[in-house]
DNA sequence: CTGAAAGCGCTTACAG
DNA sequence: CTGAAAGCGCTTACAG
């Protein structure tokens, strides 16, 4: 079977304790000579420490669990990339668990997996935990951090400031002369959607612009939600601009607008939120509020690791507005 | 700290052995009465088995490691979804490790992580392992299975039959009257690209159609590779049809063709390979060879678990041709 | 600088 | 039906 510390000890004519210390790089408990000998033998025998065994005794783990919604959106990949890179840097490993959207049982199952394994902490990606499952998470007493979704202000999270996203997106369109602006595709029950809408409304209010109810179209961030919203706006909407709350929503809006023969951006401006690669592969390319998903993942790991000191805080990452072809200045 | 078997034993006034047996559902070693009592206490105390400890003594693991290329393509998500669902069904957990494309060191690092942890087996997703890393993988003596990429015929894999994909795609276009057909975006060094090109050539040969060198444009399956290929074909190509070897490649071809004012599909037919959601969000929608990525993941886990019996075999999954708006019949 | 002893949480023969 | 003993691979005081 796999070679253990004992095998090396035998081969080096030395105790397993010393081998353990050397291979764990403990300080000042052995001579340089034995250290070198042991390392060579370990190398030659193809030794790999059984980390699970080590974790069992130290009662520490270097595994970060990432629970991710089997998301219909498409930015998760970038976040995971950031998480991975960060984990490598800090010497942690990642366990990825996916969870079905809007399925509390699936959430519970994922949390139970975590309960059964030695885990350092939990990262929750775009995940809207039910109250009950949130309690289950808290009961584990593990450090945790929400990424990209701010689950109200009860829990620690890292994300863009969604109120600001809604506010800035709207302000951008107002600055371009638009006065009839819609927003589409966000969920109405989750914090993230509420914040974006709140920012949207605030910007309009400050400019003394009014809104019709039908201009705010809720959805689930999918392509289909974008299509549906555009159909609600109809083939000849009063609107001259709409904010798509995800890239897929915006592409849905775009395609449906084209089907209505509404020229984008001449007749209708579309400003997308997210700014993934998708914005560049459609025509016209989508102007977008671009979030830094990679950093969200990267800093998410950092924050989790150092969390002890600053619990229950919001960490906001900057975003930027990138204008491409789907928005235009009104005369 | 976490509640253990001993805590339960104490509370139930019984030995830890019996508790262990009950909570592991061993047969006929205890009375129904004690079993029920123990289960109730476990429930009440919020007990969760330390699986790492159990795996240490049984020397068995129910963790499947999935090594995935931090892919520029976009179908990985579906495969992972299939893997997850299948893993749940069979009672396995998934550890996901990402690896940078074309980075042998990154591959080695991922394999080392696996070596240090109790793992049942390894699934490799769209991953072109270097010869050295492949040897490292074999040295672990763990069962493994390649998914979606057939790494030559040396290793077990599950994927579509890429020769057939190339062959059927080409035959489809020939049946539509095309005689000048290109293929674009695949790598030239990996098995998958070679197979698709071989199938492509075979179909042309059988129909006695000739090819110009420049019609075969290699790449790395990205959007940019599609753009570049189209630029190589030029603004007025002889070609009337081209096979994009991934959805992103095909979208690159499509956009570049539009920039050249080549109408798709009237002047140029594009047939995509993969058939992810992307084919439906561009205009015209892309006709595609659609692979069953979900099943690839789902059956990948099954195959890995049952692998003992049928090693080193190729498992092919069916694909289908779905015609959308990017292909047309030639007069 | 080196090692014997005890133990992390669990399971598996073995004996009753 | 129940339990004492030994051990999975590792680490941590403690003693020399």
UniProtKB/TrEMBL annotation, chains A, B:
PANTHER family in the record: HTH-TYPE TRANSCRIPTIONAL REGULATOR GALS, LACI-RELATED TRANSCRIPTIONAL REPRESSOR
Source organism of the structure: Liquorilactobacillus nagelii
HTH lacI-type domain segment(s): 3-58
UniProt KW keywords: DNA-binding, Transcription, Transcription regulation
Annotated GO MF terms: DNA-binding transcription factor activity; transcription cis-regulatory region binding
Record Gene3D superfamilies: 3.40.50.2300, lambda repressor-like DNA-binding domains
Transmembrane segments: none
Domain of life of the organism encoding this protein: Bacteria
Protein name per the record: HTH lacI-type domain-containing protein
